[in-house]
Structure formats: structure tokens, C-alpha cells
Predict the 3D structure of the following.
Amino acid sequence: MIGREYLNYFNPLSIFAAERTRDIFQVNPTVHNERKDAAGIKVQVFSYSPSHIEEKAFTETAHIHGYKDKPADTITWINIEGIRKVDVTGVCNHFGVHPLIMEDILSVGQRPKMDELAPVLFCLLNMLYFNEKNGTVETEQISIVLGKNYVITFQDDAERDVFTQVREKLRISGSKLRISGADYLCYALLDMIVDHYYIVMEKLSERIELLEEKIIRFHNTHSLNEINMLRKELIVLKRNVSPVRDLINGFIRSDSDLLEDRTTKYFKDIYDHIVQANDLAENYRDMMMNLQDLYLSNVNLKMNEVMKVMAIVTCLMAPATVIGGIFGMNFDKLPYIHNQYGFLIAVALMLLIPAWMIVAFKRRGWF
């Protein structure tokens, strides 16, 4: 039975993965990309202090307006899964968020960045997921708004995120998250996103290792196709990982009153992680270039082997061709042409000379 991964090779377009190439490179920041409103949204609210926590879930953003004016020791995290223009506009207007930030939240294909627009700090980046079925790196845009005693996050996908551990830590009384401010919560969310980058990179690393083994053992045209596909996924990885370094650096260098000095060291830890992730992405790209060179070297080596065999066969057939040509000439007086053993002598020469040539080639190490 033919494996599912090989069925794609019967489709000419899938061999070149032209559709995936368009998805990766079709980005124009000067064009306003219209975002389709989500069919529904999920709103999850954590309102907590060192002594208590309140956790609620809603399907409408109107229920969160009461969380703006909470006591000074209460931190509120509002996580909105699913983007609709009316919801984003309503929430941002209620919390006094600048219209430029609203535009970034509603945008599509934005480069990861960090902005300071009073009274909030804003950052936008992508969460990365690895699709095991298609072998592709998928992105989900997330926007984080840090205000005084609150954090608002906007996610595209209502079905998946990487914040499960943050929620579990918030439910634990006396945890670092419970006794810290909103800036530490913002750090924890960014840290989870960056840590998840490594999970995606491990999946790509496994694919690269398997591909290297396949190239060494088989080096067929399907290997070249897989090299091209993996290189495109590494482009997606690099495009999303590299700008996050500047984003985190923006938090480290910020003089905003929303960030406490003791929280800066935690953002420096994320900065170290993202620098390492960026270096790994560069290493993966170099590895893919090496795999392409390895593939071409193997193809050339195989071609050289084929040419060597053909050259040896041609050399072995040359004596028979010469002898047959000589005795096939239209002359009456040729040696052994009327001899009863003439044919046997010619055949013997045709066999003995190639046999002697094989021995000579073998001693010279030509094959």
C-alpha cells in the first residue's frame, strides 16, 4: 500500500509546493488586509491578589467592563480568544487603548513588535505550532496589552494556546504569579510563547535528522523536494523568531512606570532564550544548505559511477568491434579468412582481450 506522504508526488503542484511559497512570501505591509470576524469568542478572566482569585468565562466582552476599576492589589488578566472588530473596539475604548494599537490588533501578518503608547505597553508576536500531518509551521497572532494592574491578550485561535501552565500557576496560592504585579504576568505570558518556540524547533530538528539519513541512504528526487519544503518552514521560523529579540529588548530598555525594576531581570532571561533560539534557527538554515550540497554531491557521485560503468563496458566492447570490423572488410585476401578455425580464433580474441582488460583494470583499481 502506498504511503500517504507519497501520494502528494502524483500531484505536480505539490512537488514544487508553490501554494506554500505564496503563503510565505505574500506579505505586503502597505496593503490593509481585512480580517474576517470570528464566528464566536471566548473570554476568560482571572482577577487575583495574594489572598484570593476569581476565575470566570464569558462569551461576550461586555461582561469584562467591571474589571477596570479594581483595588490596587488586584491584578486582572483578560484573555479574549477569537477576534471580532466590534469586540476589539469596545474593549480598547473602555480601557483607553490608543487607536493605533486597535489597528495592529485587527491587522494580519504583522511583524512582531513592541510599542509604548500611554497609558499602556503593547506587544504583538506570533505563537508557533508544528503541524505533524503537513510538516508545516503554523502561526497564531497574539496581542498583549499591559496596563496598570491588568493585562489583556487577544488570540486568533479559540481552540489552542500555550498558556495552560500560566493558568495553573495562578490557581496556586502563594505562587510567584499571585504575589507579583501585572508586569510579571506579562513576562510569564511572553516566556511561555518563547519556550514553545523550542518545541517547534525540536520537531524541525527531528525532520532534518531524518532527512539527512534519507539523503545518505537514498538521495532520490523526493529528498530534494523535502529539502525545499523544510527550507520554507525554516523561513517561517526565522521570520517569527528573529524580531522577538527586539521586542524583548524594548521591555528591557523601557522606562515605563508599568514595569518594575525587579522585573527587568526576568525579561533579560527571555532575551537570552530568544537569542539562543535565533542562533539555532541560523544553524538549521546552514544545515539545510549542507544537506542540499550533500544531495548534489551524492547525485554527482552516482552519475560518475554510472559513467564509469558505461566507459568500462565501452572499452570492453572495443576489441570485439575492431576485430569484427577487420574480418568484415570486403577483401578476399585476409589472414585466416579461409581457415576452418578462423571464426573460432576471432571469437577467442574477442573474449580473451576483454578478459585481459578486466584483469588490468582491476589491478589498477579502476573498479
Observations:
- The chain has a mean pLDDT of 84.
